[in-house]
Design a protein that fits this description.
three-stranded antiparallel sheet, Alpha-Beta Plaits, globular, 31% helix, Aminopeptidase, alpha+beta, 2 domains
Amino acid sequence: MTIHLPNSSFPPLDHALKDPNGLLAAGGDLSAERLLEAYSQGIFPWFNEGEPILWWSPDPRMVLFPNELKISPSMRKTLRKKTYQIQTDAHFTQVMEACAQPRKNQAGTWIHPQMIAAYTKLHEMGWAHCVETWVGDKLVGGLYGVSIGRIFFGESMFSLIPDASKTALVHLVQQLQLWQFDLIDCQVRTPHLASLGAREISRKQFREVLDISISTHSSLNHKWEFDRI
């Protein structure tokens, strides 16, 4: 499905602050329409519970081109063992709730109930998706994000045991290659993402890829099922 949006209610991206990097606007709501408008322009929300909604478009932008994924020898060994089972779009809210759990040396989380409700709505509409890693009947890892055109906007991932989230990511990237996706948005740089092959590009370049992807590809806004790769 192709999305049709009204004129932007967001400022031009070049109005975003340099410090903090990418802060573009504050306020508004987390309606499905607003979120789709934001993502279609390379903007995403990130804010703490109880604070105004903050909208971001950092420069540079961390992205992973599907054909640039780096799989370490140890990770390849894990994949060959086939210890994990992969599901898609089966337990979206559960994945978000797991991603919301505080990490080590982290006091709180930005994935609060308001965010979970908003993205669950997007999921019900077919725009947000999750990849789940299971061992038996236990959810041990996964990730979620939003897909528009042939861009996947990664939001968060979690892992309860080693390599569980990486396994989900590898399966996602392999499927997105088959679906001819242009890139995975990783938002901002982290050493973990860099180790997997993600790299920074300019906001201008990111927006150019995004605009082409949305204008030339219909969105896969339905429940995702991965091919057996």
